[in-house]
Amino acid sequence: MRDASPQGIYKVQALDRAFAVLDLLGESDTPLGLAQVASSLQLHKSTAHRFLMVLERHHMVERTSSGKFRLGLRLFDFGNRAIEQYDLRERAQPHLRRLVAETEETAHLCILEQARVIYIDKIEPARSVRMITRIGSSNPVHCTSVGKAILAFLPEDRIEEVIRRTRFERFTHRTIANAEALRAEIEKTHRRGYAVDDEELEEGLRCIAVPLLDAQRQPVAAVSVSGPSFRVTAQKLPSIANHLLHCVRGIAHDMGYTSSSRGSRAAWTA
Amino acid sequence: MRDASPQGIYKVQALDRAFAVLDLLGESDTPLGLAQVASSLQLHKSTAHRFLMVLERHHMVERTSSGKFRLGLRLFDFGNRAIEQYDLRERAQPHLRRLVAETEETAHLCILEQARVIYIDKIEPARSVRMITRIGSSNPVHCTSVGKAILAFLPEDRIEEVIRRTRFERFTHRTIANAEALRAEIEKTHRRGYAVDDEELEEGLRCIAVPLLDAQRQPVAAVSVSGPSFRVTAQKLPSIANHLLHCVRGIAHDMGYTSSSRGSRAAWTA
DNA sequence: ACGCATATCTCATATTTTGAGAGACTGTCT
DNA sequence: AGACAGTCTCTCAAAATATGAGATATGCGT
User: Fold this and answer.
1) Tens digit of pLDDT for each residue in A223-234?
2) In B, which residues are within 8 Å of A55 by CB distance?
3) How far does the CA of A34 sit from the C1' of D26, in Å?
4) Full set of structural domains in chain A with CATH
5) For B36-54, b where at least 16 C-beta lie within 10 A, e where not — what string?
6) Inter-chain residue contact A11 with B85, CB threshold 8 Å
7) Quick one: pLDDT band at residue A30, thresholds 50, 70, 90?
8) B125: Cβ–Cβ under 8 A, 6 or more apart, which residues?
9) Is B71 left (phi over 0), alpha (psi -120 to 50) or beta?
């Protein structure tokens, strides 16, 4: 739905429908009955039923005791396999834990997928206000520190590509509203070495992020620290940034991104 | 494949095939090319190609730079949504962290799905031998402490149902080999209050688990501590069990399983 | 006990998927 | 260089597949 493939489009109706069902169940925070699924998706009862039965056989959905449907645990399995192939998450976790211990605020690990950032992991300090982010969910780049952190270290053409695909949705009155402003912010971020989201996604929430660069000095992810603005004050930013830099340095090391400063393959892009 | 549905079977070939593709990619720890997928699944090139294109459009698979396919991040999103509906995981995490800090061994959180236990979460101590468990993966009940812990507190008929569906696969020479032995072990576990897996799944690995009981005193999950046998010694078991009990008590409290000792609805099952 | 709403199931129809094969690449060997 | 061996893309007629109208069954509320 999101992207109209440039070339000829391949269709398998059954798959589109099945994923629509999963989507629907994933969106809904309460299990849905057959009838609800069928009508929401404009499928006929029998069709919806057949799909749900097949999905259930594969444990992609499961039924509550009341006979309603919700997402199944097979998806959880698949999801973990999917993320494992990146294996960034596992290696990063100890470093994130330390970061949280040091800053006592929530840490996030994100990667850039298409033109959005996906939350790969989240670590919360012992006692804190629960953050609403769900691991696996995504946000646009223009309103997140992680998005800006990654963007700022991407090559020019990739930056422009991402910007072009960004809709500049507004979340608060501080949300960056256009490509121009974003470019300026990116520029600033690059110079400073860390990115800041000053209540641009959510009122009262301030985040700060730094990118994780691979051996070719390309950003593959970003780590952020987020907390209420009254705790994450402007004065603290440099100190937090230091913790962040230390953290990503550790991750980079564990990932084998030997920053043996034989860099400068930077110009090469693709 | 795993379960022959009792009643009439519903089929949607396309879905079975699509999931077979995802399965294949999930099993493989290296991305696969079109040809490999096609031949592994006995699909014709064009068919496999079409499926992969559609799956890619849905971000269920993605292509590496070399054009090979691997699982996509949409699955990660779905997986997290699926697990969120249980929300046990999030609430349990702080307690598991404490448990790991106390015992300095790996902690697992599992639930029973059908006749197997699924790993919902894993917390590892700062420095330890990496355990091979993948979150989201599953194991049979007969060779895991978590399996036995849950089983031991299930009503008789559920126990028998699970046992009936267990294949008693052998993993080490200590693996419980038949229903009889498992029943005895269950009995023992119930009396003792905690379950032990003494190198029954893996040579040199000892685990100990206790169940998490809901308001109706039904087991909904189990928490375990696992470590090398030379560290997790027989002498330490009672002490670890205490930490475990403390941990699940905390989780139960957070989940609102007010154990207001107005229990004894135990006889009621369904 | 009745009726409404929901789920389950069957089967002939035609829509949708299928797969053979031809084309377009890519890189590898001689 | 040239040609081979391996990929991946794409088209289209054939047919097997999924479809959905509707009939049946189940269950819930009053």
Assistant:
1) 999 999 999 999
2) 15
3) 14
4) 13-78 (1.10.10.10), 86-254 (3.30.450.40)
5) bbbebeebeeeebbbbbbb
6) no
7) confident
8) B100, B101, B103, B104, B105, B106
9) beta
DSSP per-residue letters across A80-128:
HHHHHTT-HHHHHHHHHHHHHHHH-SEEEEEEEETTEEEEEEEE--SS-
Residue A34 has pLDDT above 60, yes or no: yes
> Tokens 């991040």 appear where?
B73
CA distance B148 to B195: 6
CB A231 within 8 A of CB A83: no
Strand D close to B11 by CB, under 7 A: yes
Vertex A242: Cα angle to A236 and A244 (nearest 5):
100
Task: Find the length of chain A.
Answer: 270
Tokens of A97: 């834990």
Main-chain phi, psi angles of A209, to 5 degrees: -140, 155
How does pLDDT run across B112-157, given as a tens digit for each residue?
988 899 999 999 887 666 677 888 889 999 999 999 999 999 999 8
Cβ distance of A79 and B84 shorter than 8 Å: no
Distance in angstroms: CA A46, C1' D22: 10
Two tokens at B151? 């089983």
DSSP B152-184: TTS-HHHHHHHHHT-----SSTTS--SHHHHHH
